[in-house]
Design a protein that fits this description.
Two copies of one chain form a homodimer. With 461 residues, the first copy, chain A, is an alpha/beta fold. Chain A has two domains: 288 residues, Succinyl-CoA synthetase domains (Rossmann fold), CATH 3.40.50; 160 residues, Rossmann fold (3-Layer(aba) Sandwich). Chain A contains 16 helices and 20 strands. The radius of gyration of chain A is 25 Å and the shape is elongated. The first copy, chain A, starts with 6 loop residues before the first helix and ends with a helix. The interface between A and B is large, with 80 and 81 residues.
């Protein structure tokens, strides 16, 4: 299965939807609607023998009737009928297929799944699924997910690829990713993995120019040795964030019941993660925390962090968090101290953490952030903004975005509050400044970035 | 300072605002506006010698000119003038004072602060501050915080008391608490603690009928032995969630610079927390996680948990999280299994975690939740709802709220997603069902509840 070309399923120019339906709410209807709504630029051919048209698109009674080339078939019909549909597609010259339908291995019918895989192999079709959520490629406005958009939002174009076996976890992650404004290169939910599995996806993404970080959720892997090689290769090029489910004995049993995955020994997985420098997330929250710092911030091989805040308590919490994660408080250079004494009011001490005190405004933040950012003894800057303070308004958001856009060193934000604060937090994130709601998550994420940066640069941790 | 009566500052019938201002945005203006906007039912007397009225309220040039009784003085004038204003208030018979003004110990003027404390003592005034955020008592519509509501939201009435030294952390917490819909009994930010400190607040809250859980943020404590006694007493009656900042050496140094607090040895604090069964939160996120389960859920001395989900992957993650936190997966009784086989479709296995599979609707959830909830071998129920699934809609929210309202055992939710999901999550939380976005935080919070419940019931952990 090596060298599987996922382009056929991710970047088709023409798509047939086998099982297209006129009835709103039906999977075969939602699939057509989502492609239309996404403004997919290629051709869409609904296949339905008893309908004339769906959403203004002419229907075909059979995939082979469609005039011209069909690159991809999305199949959402009864499981028993899928192998034949795939064979027909193969005869038509279709190169990619996504089988949404369930009712295979997971329903106690492994033979039917084998039949499917055999047909795919015979015709050289790149097959995703069966029993999968589908794929999304925002750049191509390609949305092959059967969930309506009101239930699950869709992400913008960007650099993170998500690879998930579980459709449930996949849908949840995609929904959050869209809401939080992550930019996504590819989203791949591969379900039962009859033909394409996590290793294929990783091999493809290692060479995908649009992907700069990969996030993987796994319960178990199909091919251990190939997985090891693929992660090793990918991890040298791009950060690979992984969340492994089924790490406890009971959890592994639940995973087996869920996807028939052999979760295997967690110790063995951890050894692979460690050796290949995968970035392990121990919870969904951590997964999102890590993804956003890796996709937006430059590499950082130093561990000396400056903390700037208008809330002394936050300076204390951030310091605790940094030290506990194994990072260090930077010491400001004599020049930085001098500059701070010159530009700051007397109550502000020229120390790190730098407490700008309660009446700090955007200008004071600007002077402080620039001073810390330019200090060669500072490797990364954390700016904690308490927007509850009356003197601090949205101007500081522009200040932070401006400095961060230089990309010389990581600059991240911590902020927490109600609607006003949340609005500012989202503005920061949508402009590429990761914003954390807790010092703990900020420090932990920064530590992962430092460790990985050292690994790719050859520096020792 | 023992036996300080905080009623004077928390439940006044009449309030003088010394330093009231007609100029919008000024602290002395915001203080009047907030009380008016909150619809404070008592009397409000702005004190300003050069104004006739503010927000339609007659102004007085001096506190002693005010006719009738004044229970509380909120003071927001230049630090140097505060001791005299407090003395005047004392002569008027004022029993409580909140000094918002900064410019005392924290600005290198401990003598001025001592003068203030002396005046308070002389007249028997319960004094909060100086240099504090103020207090909120939602039940009495008493809002003595100088931050405008557009910058920081205000909480509803409920059972959680928050006690904070740091104004910055305090404002952030209050803002989140309001946004997340926590019900608050009292919010006390005591600033420099010239007269009233954390120990006084804890002693008062131990006897406060409206408070069923206390959340404390501290950098250091003023009176170690009294603090130990007060936490011991309170913790036997009500859960006390504590977050300690300045736990590392660098963090302690930052705390000293911030509030001149001697953060002390973290090991010593932890020993106190452990011995007195305080619920230590290691991050702000944990603090909120714990607060919401303790304030809404019944005690729970058993550790056998049922997990119900419409996403198999979530069942795996939740199982991992439970086991890692030291809880157990419950085993369903033969009766429950029989009931499940009768009411569930064939694809649903009668096992825990209970995967209701992708097409589960609210009715299937209802049957499953009731079966698990009634099983005497189940001590707590976690319901994980993936709202991305097309078959699951807001009906399930009512189902969950209904069962949870019986309060026989804890019932908590896990859900994560975009706007649709977030709307459902908030509906759950506003009806007293804590909803977590990650299995890790749900399991960790439940474990804290089990441990504390065992402590108060005398069961061994």
């Amino acid at each position: 299965m090596q060298g599987v070309n996922l382009k056929h399923v991710l970047s088709p120019k023409s798509i047939a939807i086998i099982g297209a339906s006129r009835e709103p709410g039906k999977i075969g209807n939602v699939l057509v609607k989502n492609l239309v709504d996404a403004k997919f630029s290629g051709k869409i051919f609904p296949v339905n023998p008893s309908a004339e048209s769906i959403y203004g698109l002419k229907c075909y009674s059979d995939v082979r009737e469609i005039p011209g080339t069909v690159d991809l078939a999305i199949i959402a019909i009864h499981a028993e009928l899928v192998p034949e549909a795939l064979t027909e597609s193969g005869k038509k010259g279709v190169k990619g297929a996504i089988v949404i339908s369930g009712g295979f291995s997971e329903a106690g019918k492994p033979e039917l799944e084998k039949e499917l895989a055999k047909a795919a192999k015979k015709f050289g079709i790149t097959l995703i699924g069966p029993n999968c959520l589908g794929v999304v490629n925002p750049k191509e406005k390609m949305d092959a997910i059967f969930i309506p958009t009101y239930k699950m939002e869709r992400p913008n174009e960007g650099g993170i690829a998500f690879v998930k076996q579980s459709g449930a976890i996949g849908s949840m992650i995609l929904d959050v990713v869209a809401r939080e404004g992550f930019g996504v290169s590819k989203f791949i939910s591969y379900g039962n993995a009859a033909a394409v599995d996590e290793t294929d996806a990783l091999e493809f993404l290692a060479n995908d120019a649009e992907t700069n970080i990969v996030v993987l959720y796994i319960e178990g892997v199909k091919r251990g040795i190939e997985f090891f090689k693929a992660t090793k290769k990918l991890s040298k090029r791009k950060p690979l964030v992984v969340i492994k489910a089924g790490v406890t004995e009971k959890g592994a049993a639940a995973a087996k019941s869920h996807t028939a995955a052999l979760a295997g020994s967690y110790a063995a997985y951890r050894a692979v993660f460690k050796q290949n420098r995968l970035i392990e997330a121990r919870s969904l929250d951590e997964m999102f925390d890590y993804a956003k710092i890796f996709t937006t911030q430059p590499r950082c091989t130093g561990d000396r962090v400056a903390v700037i805040t208008n809330g002394g308590g936050m300076g204390v919490l951030a310091t605790d968090a940094l030290v506990e994660e194994g990072l260090r408080l930077a010491e400001f250079s004599p020049e930085t101290r001098k500059l701070l004494r010159k530009t700051m009011p007397p109550l502000v001490k020229d120390e790190n953490p730098l407490d700008l005190v309660g009446d700090a405004d955007a200008e004071r933040f600007e002077a402080a952030i620039k001073a810390a950012y330019e200090d060669s003894g500072v490797d990364a800057v954390i700016v904690s903004t308490l927007f509850q303070r009356v003197s601090l308004d949205s101007h500081v958001v522009d200040v932070i975005i401006n400095v961060a856009s230089r990309k010389k060193k990581p600059l991240i934000n911590i902020t927490l509050g109600g609607e006003y604060t949340e609005t500012q937090r989202r503005a920061l994130e949508s402009s590429g400044v990761p914003s954390y709601t807790s010092p703990t998550s900020a420090a932990r994420s920064l530590k992962k970035l430092v460790d990985y940066s050292r690994f790719v640069s050859g520096k020792k941790n």
